[in-house]
TrEMBL record:
Keywords: Cytoplasm, Hydrolase, RNA-binding, tRNA-binding. GO terms for cellular component: cytoplasm. GO terms for biological process: protein quality control for misfolded or incompletely synthesized proteins; rescue of stalled ribosome. It is found in: Cytoplasm. Belongs to the PTH family. This is Peptidyl-tRNA hydrolase. PROSITE patterns: PEPT_TRNA_HYDROL_1, PEPT_TRNA_HYDROL_2. NCBIfam families: pth. InterPro entries: Pept_tRNA_hydro, Pept_tRNA_hydro_CS, Pept_tRNA_hydro_sf. Signal peptide: none annotated. The active site is at 22 (proton acceptor). Monomer. Its main location: cytoplasm.
Length: 197
């Protein structure tokens, strides 16, 4: 059985960002919380919104850092230190430019891939060994367009694919909690989101 104790979703706080691609991690945590009727509560000492899910053998904390993306590690580090949660017990969901909408992949460890939220988490935790859930948002085609792209809203078709993928990724997280990363990866990596006909 997996020992994931903390599920983090990365994003930016505030209504002006809530529908932007960079908030895909928030969308995932909110979807997961919704399934279990959890409400994310502000917790100032962890610089974010948190909830706790205790179900059977699961004891999982959920976290949305409210520090803005580039300082995500501040919130994750504060909560992980307080509850003595090791990097390998953390799963973080975030937007991934290198995957198309409709695709999500698990990954463990490695570099930040240029993602500022992940970069800050590695620095705060002193380790890259946490698990990642990369939610595809697609790429605008040129580096110079990335900032505007991640902070922009996706067209309806892409949003539908991302929502579909996030729902499926939540199923895979449940499998991860019940079984292990291998089972969760097999389920998630074979998934193909359906576009609206």
């Amino acid at each position: 059985m997996s020992t994931i104790r903390l599920l983090v979703g990365l994003g930016n706080p505030g209504p002006e960002y809530s529908q932007t691609r960079h908030n895909a991690g928030f969308w995932l945590v909110e979807e997961f919380a919704r399934r279990y009727n959890l409400s994310m509560q502000p917790e100032t000492k962890f610089f974010g919104h948190t909830a706790r899910l205790q179900k059977g053998a699961w004891d999982l904390r959920l976290l949305e850092p409210m520090t803005f993306m580039n300082k995500s590690g501040k919130a994750v580090g504060a909560l992980a230190n307080f509850f003595k949660i090791k990097p390998e017990e953390i799963l973080v969901a975030y937007d991934e430019l290198d995957l198309p909408p409709g695709v999500a992949k698990f990954k463990t460890g490695g570099g930040s891939g240029g993602h500022n939220g992940i970069k800050d988490m590695i620095a705060a935790l002193g380790s890259p060994d946490f698990h990642r859930l990369r939610i595809g948002i697609g790429h605008p085609g040129h580096k110079s367009k990335v900032t505007g792209y991640v902070l922009g809203k996706a067209p309806a078709q892409d949003q539908h694919l991302m929502d579909d993928t996030i729902a499926h990724a939540c199923n895979s997280i449940e499998l991860l909690l019940d079984q292990d990363m291998r089972a969760a990866q097999q389920q998630l990596h074979s998934f193909k989101a359906q576009s609206e006909s």
